[in-house]
Design a protein that fits this description.
By secondary structure, this protein is an alpha/beta fold. The protein folds into two domains: 154 residues, Aspartate Aminotransferase, domain 1; 228 residues, Aspartate Aminotransferase, domain 2 (3-Layer(aba) Sandwich). Helices cover 40% and strands 18% of the residues. It is built from 15 helices and 17 strands. The strands form four sheets. A seven-stranded mixed sheet has the order 4-12-11-10-7-5-6, sandwiched between helices. A four-stranded mixed sheet has the order 1-2-3-15. It starts with a helix and ends with a helix. The model has no long low-confidence stretch (mean pLDDT 97).
Length: 400
């Protein structure tokens, strides 16, 4: 089996563009919250494919839905109707309060769509605006528009010049936000909880400042809920928890439970300014993606996943805070529901392999933060087992 692993890595090294620094683990199977590598070793997954595998691995209902759809019809293009896109859009409208959806294939594409629709809104009104206010520590994606509103210079610098007119302000600084937003601002974009930036929640007072700035200037509000939305925090969308009032919402990750799908959710006043041909996607809203998303929403609402996240999320938080009290390396615990970050007193990089060696998958973000995004179906018992392993890893790194 070792030779097979070597072959896999050698083939990638020769033929796959080297944009990912992968951990030396090769996964071949999953079940629920558990992953299995090529040698048959079991891991508890506290990352869920970076928040994607919302129903865990090989979820029976999702497996059935994908198989049935694959045996029926996968794709027809957006030149024709099919029965699932409207159903999914209606479901998302009920959950979000925004009546229209544009379907794409990822969260980054959803952000791109939101930025385009914001620009188009002002052009249609005969008042072109191109300035955007974004937040420091933000991450919205790697394509050129999404990258332009992502603050980290490490991501931005090699690809400049990016879109002009983007201003970054400190998160949770209402005065800085108010000073940056004007009648030239097309939109404000913000993650209700900053994910890649280190699991940093926005405050209700800052959300109120965003709402006030939009009311004062007419600027549109784009909520990037790609990571924190769709049940991750125990709510359909986290903006509601802090009182934020978006005109557009970008979603992805959890929506397909592993099948690539994203969406830009759009208010009626923005939708009224969009015309045929303004945007498009070959794969966006295909039958397979819509079927997977509907399966996920069935589980989220009718299947009790939202209520489950609230129950086990409270247990997760209690366990994390107790862990932090015992481990001096942990300086702060941030998050809610099943979205958590452990801010450490040192670089978090060594924690990732230490945790993997003990059979638990986590990742590092914002240099010093261990990020935890388990499947939304994780049980209290699995949380206990995984956090016991993680605490061993933190203790080992703290002692080194």
């Amino acid at each position: 089996m070792a030779m097979v692993v070597e072959d896999i890595r050698a083939r990638e090294a020769k033929h796959v563009l080297q944009t990912y620094r992968r951990a030396p683990i090769t996964f071949v199977r999953g079940s629920g919250v558990r992953l299995y590598d090529i040698d048959g070793r079991e891991y508890l997954d506290l990352l869920s494919g970076i928040g994607v595998n919302s129903l865990g691995h090989a979820h029976p209902a999702l497996v059935r839905a994908i198989a049935e759809q694959a045996a029926t019809l996968l794709h027809t293009s957006n030149l024709f109707f099919h029965p699932l896109q409207g159903e999914l859009a209606e479901r998302l409208a009920r959950l979000s309060g925004l009546p229209r959806a544009f379907f794409c294939n990822s969260g980054t594409e959803a952000v791109e769509a939101c930025l385009k629709f914001a620009r188009r809104h002002w052009t249609t009104r005969g008042e072109p605006r191109h300035e955007v206010v974004a937040l420091e520590e933000s991450f919205h994606g790697r394509t050129m528009g999404a990258l332009s509103v992502t603050s980290d210079e490490h991501y931005r610098a090699p690809f400049e010049p990016l879109l002009p007119g983007v201003r970054f302000v400190a998160a949770n600084d209402p005065a800085a936000l108010a000073a940056a937003v004007s009648t030239k601002t097309a939109a404000i974009i913000a993650e209700p909880i900053q994910g890649e930036g280190g699991v940093r929640p926005l405050t209700s007072s800052f959300a109120a400042a965003i709402n006030d700035a939009c009311a004062r200037t007419g600027a549109l509000m784009i909520a990037d809920e790609v990571q924190c939305g769709l049940g991750r925090t125990g709510r359909p969308f986290h903006h509601a928890a802090i009182g934020l009032k978006p005109d557009l919402i970008a979603i992805g990750k959890a929506l397909g439970a592993g099948v690539p799908v994203g969406a830009a959710l759009v208010s009626e006043r923005v939708a009224d300014t969009i015309a045929f041909g303004d945007h498009g996607s070959t794969y966006g809203g295909n039958l397979l993606a819509c079927r997977a998303a509907i399966c996920f929403l069935d589980a989220l609402t009718d299947g009790g996943v939202l209520a489950h996240v609230n129950r086990v999320g409270a247990h997760f938080e209690a366990r994390l805070r107790a862990l932090a009290a015992r481990q001096p390396i942990v300086k702060e615990v941030r998050g809610t529901g099943l979205m958590w970050g452990l801010a450490l007193a040192k670089d978090a990089s060594p924690v990732v392999p230490e945790a993997a060696s003990r059979g638990v998958i986590v990742n590092r973000t914002a240099e010093t933060v261990v990020r935890l995004l388990p499947p939304l179906i994780i049980t209290a018992e699995e949380i206990d087992q995984a956090l016991d392993r993680l605490e061993q890893a933190l203790a080992a790194v703290g002692a080194s």
